[in-house]
Design a protein that fits this description.
The protein is of the alpha/beta class. Helix content is 48%, strand content 17%.
Length: 370
């Protein structure tokens, strides 16, 4: 059978790669093509467009690049038609993928959506698009099953794929020496994976180095942005950068400052106390604030349904506030112990490993369903 998979971000490339591996186990003759990155390619997919060309974030950035995005939509339609898949699998990246779904449904393709758009947070109109255009919605948070099912969408909770990825992780015992880290306890700095957000987040994170002399601060870098991109923000500090080794970094960290996103959940699953931060343009922030219907932005707090980690957003993302909250979890404090206890409950809520296997079974069954 033939599968066309679209992932528009680094995390989607990761989760799609694990999905591809399970699809190949369930369907050894599978032909898989799509949009993604190195991880999907390594898993056996033919990549027709690299996700790094699609990395537009924020309302203003999307508007500025609307012609490019429309060109991408035209291209993917041609590629899908030429490949003639039995199913199209859309992975996260709602702004683009829902447009694909609308066209593809009209062309008669079966559509599975893995990692649902966060319609429960904002833009509930996406719920109705999912109902109209998607044959099977595969969700990764337990509360999403009830939310989407009440709208009559065929939905399955498959578990969280981060459990699979972290379960496969094997710690590099030589990580500290290979990266020339000293003996001080480590504070991990996770500024994000997209150039725009790293540019917004990193300078303040670097400024923490003068406040935490007793700690070794280490940036989780992504190699596609390049070493020079990060170094221009370091301003002579002794902060280290490790590339594409976030899990190894978290495995040796005492605490972390994390840009809101999937990384907050990964940090929690590694039992590293954290402060969650986020900043965007004032225009994008004001638009988002007027639309968002949820109390929290971090996945840790959303899944826990209460404040487990402190969120410092926009104006609150300031050196004094970060220091204040980081001190509460870096030392042997009640706050640290409480956060770690909540992490354990969070892990239980997310279910067991096997999300990719369950998702692949749902997708194969969708193809076979008459």
């Amino acid at each position: 059978m033939k599968y066309f998979i679209i992932a528009g971000e680094k995390s989607g490339d990761l989760h799609a790669s694990n999905l591809i591996s399970e699809i190949r186990t369930a369907d050894p003759e599978a032909e898989i093509a799509g949009w993604g990155g190195d991880r999907m390619s390594e898993a056996g997919a033919t990549i027709l467009k690299d996700y790094r060309e699609l990395a537009f974030m924020g309302f203003i950035e999307v508007i500025r690049n609307i012609r490019v995005i429309l060109g991408f939509l035209k291209l993917v339609k041609v590629q899908i038609a030429e490949f003639a898949p039995d199913v199209i699998v859309l992975v996260d990246y709602a702004g683009f993928n829902l447009r694909v779904a609308r066209w593809a449904k009209g062309e008669g393709y079966k559509i599975a959506y893995y990692i649902a758009p966060k319609a429960w947070a904002w833009n509930e109109s996406r719920v109705y698009k999912l109902k109209k255009y998607v044959d099977k919605l595969l969700v990764i948070f337990p509360f999403e099953l009830e939310f989407f099912s009440k709208f009559g969408i065929s939905t399955a909770f498959v578990g969280n794929p981060l459990k699979d990825e972290i379960g496969k992780f094997r710690k590099n015992e030589h990580f500290r020496t290979e990266n020339k880290l000293d003996e001080r306890p480590v504070i991990a700095l996770l500024p994000g994976s997209r150039k725009q957000e790293v540019e917004k987040m990193l300078s303040l994170m670097v400024a923490l180095s003068t406040e935490y002399r007793d700690y070794q601060l280490v940036i989780a870098g992504v190699s596609n942005l390049g070493k020079g991109f990060y170094e221009q923000h370091l301003a002579g500090s002794d902060i280290k950068i490790v590339f594409d080794q976030t899990y190894d970094l978290l495995s040796v960290s005492r605490a972390a400052v994390v840009t809101s996103g999937t990384a907050t959940l990964e940090t929690a699953l590694f039992a590293v106390p954290q402060v969650v931060v986020y900043k965007t343009s004032n225009v994008s922030y004001l638009i988002a604030k007027s639309l968002v219907k949820i109390k929290y932005i971090s996945l840790v707090n959303l899944v826990s349904e209460k404040e487990v980690v402190k969120e410092l957003i926009q104006g609150d993302y300031a050196i004094d506030r970060v220091k204040e909250e980081l001190n509460k979890v870096a030392g042997d404090t009640k706050n640290r112990k409480a956060q770690l206890m909540e992490y354990a409950l969070l892990s239980e809520k997310l279910g067991h490993e096997g999300a990719s296997k369950m998702a692949s079974a749902e997708i194969v069954n969708l193809i076979l369903k008459k």
